[in-house]
């Protein structure tokens, strides 16, 4: 029977798995590992944003994945730029200069886009939490008022409330594994992407630590959150009026009058500018489409995500 391999002299035995795989650092033989680690160190909020977005990577691994995804997209954009410039009559110096300038610009922009993904995902999760937080909190409050234990009450909101249920499910899992209730609440609140959700969970944790009634504290903070959400809805309604006015001016009135004046101008000028007519119409159509898209994006992003 073969003997197990002994450790080198003076070395301590190592465990089978000292670090969870999702938290393991990048491989030591990975190329450019110093660059990845340096970039990750220059973004101190990246780890927290990864936790809020529930991306199971350490910062160095995430930066490496961003570089890996950036390279093919940069090459694809560079190829499209070169193909577009071949349709133009450019001097060789201008052609190669634009191609050489486009490569680092595309690389920087795509890399920044991928690096901002955790922040965008965490904000999206925060908006989803805000949308269901008041309803889940009222459910929890009713359970507590009826005499249900806090753990059982939180167990009841671990479903049917979207991202809020996922946050409370984390608390239930931690408590089931033996973490004290107050510590589990503080830990989940620290990585919650919603300010309202963080406030509700911390209020519950502080009530447990001080020994006060959790139901009274929860009712108070839910009332404050509801009032602030109503104020945000009213502010959104006031903000929508000038947005609609600018949209009517730049998206409806100016394009309509511009097309009418353009047709009249071309009819007076004659055939001198008639060959520019189709191109100008396409340009006006593209401008109107861009204005429509910008208006819808602004309205959608500024709209509060919660319902009362």
Offer a quick outline of the entry.
The protein is an all-alpha fold and 308 residues long.
Please characterize this protein's 3D structure.
The chain is an all-alpha fold and 308 residues long. The protein has 3 domains: 30-115, no CATH class; 124-227, Receptor-associated Protein; 230-302. Helix content is 73%, strand content 0%. α3 (59-86) packs antiparallel against α4, α5 packs across α6 (150-156) and α5 packs across α10 (214-269). The radius of gyration is 29 Å and the shape is flat.
Helices and strands, with pairings:
Blueprint lengths: L32 H9 L4 H7 L6 H28 L5 H24 L1 H29 L4 H7 L6 H14 L4 H10 L4 H16 L3 H56 L7 H26 L6
Helix pairs in contact: 1-3, 2-5, 3-4, 5-6, 5-9, 5-10, 7-8, 8-9, 9-10, 10-11
């Amino acid at each position: 029977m073969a003997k197990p391999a002994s450790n080198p002299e003076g070395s301590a035995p190592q465990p089978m798995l000292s670090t969870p795989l999702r938290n393991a650092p990048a491989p030591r033989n990975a190329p450019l590992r110093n660059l990845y680690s340096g970039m990750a160190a220059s973004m101190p909020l990246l780890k927290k944003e990864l936790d809020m977005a529930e991306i199971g990577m350490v910062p160095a691994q995430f930066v490496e994945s961003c570089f890996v995804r950036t390279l093919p997209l940069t090459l694809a954009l560079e190829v499209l730029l070169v193909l577009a410039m071949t349709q133009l009559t450019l001097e060789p110096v201008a052609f190669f200069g634009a191609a050489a300038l486009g490569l680092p610009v595309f690389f920087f922009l795509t890399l920044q886009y991928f690096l901002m993904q955790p922040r965008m995902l965490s904000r999206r999760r925060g908006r989803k939490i805000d949308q269901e937080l008041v309803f889940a909190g009222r459910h929890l409050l009713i359970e507590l008022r009826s005499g249900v234990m806090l753990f059982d009450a939180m167990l009841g909101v671990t479903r049917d409330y979207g991202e809020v249920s996922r946050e409370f499910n984390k608390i239930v899992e931690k408590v089931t594994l033996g973490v004290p209730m107050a510590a589990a609440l503080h830990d989940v609140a620290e990585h919650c992407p919603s300010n309202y959700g963080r406030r509700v969970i911390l209020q519950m944790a502080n009530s447990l630590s001080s020994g006060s009634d959790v139901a009274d504290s929860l009712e108070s903070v839910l009332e404050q959150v509801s009032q602030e959400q109503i104020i945000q809805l009213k502010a959104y309604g006031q903000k929508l009026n000038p947005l609609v006015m600018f949209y009517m001016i730049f998206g409806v009135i100016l394009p309509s009058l511009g097309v009418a004046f353009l047709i009249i101008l071309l009819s007076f000028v004659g055939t001198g500018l008639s060959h520019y007519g189709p191109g100008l119409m396409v340009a006006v159509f593209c401008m109107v489409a861009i204005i429509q898209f910008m208006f819808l994006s602004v309205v959608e992003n500024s709209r509060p995500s919660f319902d009362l």
